[in-house]
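Following the same procedure, backbone shapes were mapped to integers, as reproduced here:
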Amino acid sequence: MLKSSNTASYELGLDELDGFALELLKSFKSGVVILRGDLAAGKTTLTKALCAACGVNKTAVSSPTFSLMHEYGGVFHYDLYRSDFDSICQNGLFENFFEDGLHIAEWGDERLENALKKYKIPLCIIKIFALENSRKYEVSFA
């Protein structure tokens, strides 16, 4: 089981992702999950598993590349690939992180991480690395 006081690494196949998401949400039900990784590492795939663990139909989940945010009944999904921290603040998106619920931010940078820590918003950072037949997930909590 994942615990909010540790940093751990997991190598998982796609068939193990739903179970991983369920375990993560046992100890982290609200706050911000920042997902980091190269293009096509599996950030949106993990987002779909996290949303499904919250009761959202996976087929309803898509990357908010151009709209920047989608909301699925208390689950907020951000794609910040083209946005730095200043543009998040200018667009009024930073205030959303104070709302109750689970916030999943693909491509969240260190400035976002530091701002969330400053306001003591629960934070989970997951770095994703693509391997040949699986993914490596480095999970830490702040």
User: Anything to note?
Assistant: The chain has one domain: 30-141. The chain is about 25% helix and 30% strand.
